[in-house]
Specification:
The chain is of the alpha+beta class. The protein has a single domain, classed as Translation Initiation Factor IF3 (2-Layer Sandwich), CATH 3.30.110.20. Helix content is 26%, strand content 29%. Strands 1, 2, 3, 4, 5 and 6 form a six-stranded mixed β-sheet that branches. Helix 1 runs parallel beside helix 2. It is flat. The mean pLDDT is 83. It is found in: Nucleus. Belongs to the histone-like Alba family. Its main location: nucleus. InterPro entries: Alba-like_dom_sf (IPR036882), Alba-like_NAB (IPR051958), DNA/RNA-bd_Alba-like (IPR002775).
Amino acid sequence: MENYKKSKVVEKESPLPFTDLPSDIIEMKVKDGSKIRNLMGYAIAKMESDSVQQILFSGSGKAVSKAITCVEIMKRRQKGLHQVTKVFFKQTEEIWEPIVPTAGLDNLTVKRNVPAICVLLSKDQLDAQTPGYQAPGSFNAFWLETLKAESQGQMKRKRSGGRGAGGKTGKYPRSGGRGEFYKKS
């Protein structure tokens, strides 16, 4: 590949994984170079208006994590949003051209399957039986349960003493602490 340079990347258009979306839905196409601040400024302004009921975030490749971040910010700002997440692959084609055209090398086409995500957020109730559905507030219940389990685990560790198996040997034995070493006689 040292004799080639990438000339362009073509992303094949694939239909959205949601079939019954209204034609006027706001679709936020997140790219890896998108600024979250800009995306969220527009999306939050639209969702706060009464005319918009649903918004769709989509991203592929390196933009998947940025799309998820946008969704989580939106869910924290707008309480009570229903969510359906679909994960799939998009096909991209990379076209590589020879660095030296007179070398007799042909153009190369590399096809890649890139991970992609689409997340539908809705103020209205969505079908709870749909795979990838997340009810409003289910995020909070999960984290409350996790924090409770972690705090119980920490309490158990605190009760054990924390000084290892140890008796009173070591640099500073338990009985006197550091104070005994610094007393003037």
